[in-house]
Amino acid sequence: MPAATPKPRGRRPKTSEVTPDTAIDDRYRAPALDKGLDILELLATQPHGLTRAEIVKEMDRSASEIYRMLERLVARQYVMRTPSGDRYALSLKLFALAHMHPPLSRLINQALPIMDDFTRKAEQSCHMGVYDRGNVLISAQINSPSGWSFAVQRGARVGLLDTASGHLLLAFADEGSFKRMLAEHTPVDGEVPTTLEALQATLASIRERGYLERDSAQTQGVVDISFPILGPDNTALATLTCPYIRRIDRHVGPEMAQVREYLRAAARALSLTQGMNTA
């Protein structure tokens, strides 16, 4: 079998050229900022750094403007020169900044007002799940303001293999993470057993639809509606789940289809990608 032909190394797209859907309105463009961010994103993919000439080639910009930007990034300690002095690489400053505010706390702080808005419109509760040591941790939860709802407590650990949150996290994991998650999994109390074949079929269906909607495997009368919160690589950072219950008295609240759309919008607002396959 002939060897695959390597892809040619074209110039790195500028921020404003990425896609029509993500093009920045010209009124709010900041070319110098875009240039600096492009350099940081480029260097993030290069474990051994790049020379100035290589950066100029990849960025398709003039040597003088790249030189000025590099010098500012070095002065602010976002970029460092390698010991040989002829290459530039990312420093640990971005890493340190990220850890000044833990990522999960930041996600929760961003999610809570959006979740609160969902519960008010949907008249249902909502919780956010993240992967944690082989199962799912409920990291945030908001009750319905109507007083009638079903809720999963914040801090609860629920099963990876039999819950809506767990299935979403597995369905939108990369191959390496998927294998690690399965290897780390330990059954929780009451977990419904499944086979790998059945699990794979469920995950394939979720990926095709972009979300999950089904009767709860834990509680009768509850329908789980769950969407992924996606990162820039289309893997799930977390999940938003509504344990939907239908009122049968005279109160008229949002129908399940409308609740689904409210939840879809909430998950989309928190995702770091516009590529959510949630049609």
Automatic annotation (TrEMBL):
UniProt entry keywords in alphabetical sequence: DNA-binding, Transcription, Transcription regulation
Pfam families: HTH_IclR (PF09339), IclR_C (PF01614)
Domain HTH iclR-type: 30-92
Domain IclR-ED: residue ranges: 93-276
SMART domains tied to this protein: HTH_ICLR
Disordered as annotated region, ranges: 1-20
Transmembrane segments: none
Database matches in PROSITE patterns: HTH_ICLR (PS51077), ICLR_ED (PS51078)
Record-level Gene Ontology MF annotations: DNA binding
InterPro entries reported in the protein's UniProt record: GAF-like_dom_sf, HTH_MetabolicPath_Reg, Tscrpt_reg_IclR_C, Tscrpt_reg_IclR_N, WH-like_DNA-bd_sf, WH_DNA-bd_sf
PANTHER family: HELIX-TURN-HELIX TRANSCRIPTIONAL REGULATOR, ICLR FAMILY (PTHR30136), HTH-TYPE TRANSCRIPTIONAL REGULATOR KDGR-RELATED (PTHR30136:SF7)
Protein name: DNA-binding IclR family transcriptional regulator
Source species: Hydrogenophaga palleronii
